[in-house]
Design brief:
7 helices; single chain; 258 residues; UDP N-Acetylglucosamine Acyltransferase, domain 1; 5-stranded parallel sheet; 15 strands; alpha/beta; 2 domains
């Protein structure tokens, strides 16, 4: 038991830079208190003491603002940050090293008996206010963005954002390299909001950069063909894009993000 407690406390240090010492974590983190109370309620539920398990679970809800049904299955090193307003349904299953932020709901969309709540595999992160609804699986290492509403299965390693949830897969490394090269060429930084942030505007600009990359390549091919035919049409240099001309634009983007 003490080994599990030590493991829970260490998981807080790994995922919350605000944690200063073990005593503070032990006494001031309602997410941990909710998990420990749930373990007691879950044990009672498994022994057939259903009513008592619900009473213990309700006490945990009153104490922490986090509602975890005693029938829910929770893995190791489960971390709830802030925690207020979290609801986890009866048939929900949570793997190891999962992180939930405040206002998350792991709910159902049916009143039928049986599996009706989601399964979160190892390493899943669910952002504040997100709703994951239904008896499907969120794959290992997936991320659910803040306030997203997810009603369909999510592949491992994917990111889901928006209402309804839209799946954004991991970017191809070669594609990202080409986008960065084009962005540097035209003096625009499409990644000012952070390269790992699935921002829809940044994605749209990324697609524009892909298009520019293709157009640039096609123009170079045409110029090469014209040169072979003896034309000097492409000998003229393109107007220079000076970095200082984009400084104010980049400064605005960074100030908005900050």
């Amino acid at each position: 038991m003490f080994e599990r407690l030590r493991e829970d406390i260490q998981s807080v240090f790994h995922r919350d830079p605000a944690a200063r010492n073990a005593f503070e974590v032990l006494t001031c983190y309602p997410g941990l208190h909710a998990i420990w109370i749930h373990r007691l309620a879950s044990a009672l539920w498994g022994m057939g003491w259903k009513w008592l398990a619900r009473v213990v679970s309700n006490f945990g809800r009153w104490l922490t603002g986090i509602e975890i049904h005693p029938g829910a299955k929770v893995g190791r090193r489960f971390f709830i940050d802030h925690g207020m307003g979290i609801v986890i349904g009866e048939t929900a299953e949570i793997g190891d090293d999962v992180t939930l932020y405040q206002g998350v709901t792991l709910g159902g969309t049916s009143w039928n008996k049986g599996k009706r709540h989601p399964t979160l595999e190892d390493g899943v992160v669910v952002g504040a206010g997100a709703k994951v609804l239904g008896p499907f699986t969120v794959g290992a290492g997936a991320k659910v963005g803040s306030n997203a509403v997810v009603t369909k299965a999510v592949p491992a390693g994917a990111t889901v954002v928006g209402i309804p949830g839209r799946i954004i897969m991991k970017s191809d490394d070669e594609l990202e390299a080409r986008r960065k090269a084009m962005a540097e060429k035209i003096g625009f930084d499409a990644y000012g909001v952070g390269e790992d942030m699935p921002d829809p505007i940044a994605r749209a600009i990324g697609q524009l950069l892909d298009h520019l990359q293709a157009v640039d390549g096609r123009l170079e091919g045409m110029c090469g063909a014209l040169k072979d035919l003896g034309s000097n049409y492409c000998a003229k240099d393109l107007p220079e894009l000076r970095e200082e001309d984009f400084a104010c634009v980049k400064g605005k983007d960074e100030s908005q993000v900050g």
